[in-house]
Amino acid sequence: ANIWYEELSTGKIKIEKKDLTRKRLGRSPNLGDAVCYGFNDHKDPLHRISQMIFT
């Protein structure tokens, strides 16, 4: 199985760069983006992606 994310020692999840995902899939990962943002902690509106690190 291929894994395109990494769990960091801080408990955060690091996912692959969007341009690499586009290249691998041959299309934009729109549904994948929606899933990532859906699991995000939205308590801090100034840091809407504070639980994830997009590299």
Global structural class:
alpha+beta
- The percentage helix is 25-40%
Could you describe the largest sheet, including whether it forms a barrel? 3 strands, mixed
Task: List the helices and strands in order.
Answer: EEHHE
- Helical element count? 2
Oligomer: single chain
Number of strands: 3
Strand order of the largest sheet: 1-2-3
Taking all residues together, what is the mean pLDDT? 75
Rg over alpha carbons: 12 Å
Counting structural domains, the number is 1
Q: Quote the distance from N terminus to C terminus.
A: 22 Å
Q: Layout of SSEs?
A:
Elements: E1 5-7, E2 13-15, H1 18-25, H2 30-38, E3 52-54
Parallel strand pairs: 2-3
Antiparallel strand pairs: 1-2
Structure description:
The structure is a single chain. The protein has 55 residues and is an alpha+beta fold. The protein has one domain. It is 31% helix and 16% strand. It has two helices and three strands; from the N terminus they run ββααβ. The protein has a three-stranded mixed β-sheet with strand order 1-2-3, with no helix packed on it. The radius of gyration is 12 Å and the shape is flat. The model has no long low-confidence stretch (mean pLDDT 75).
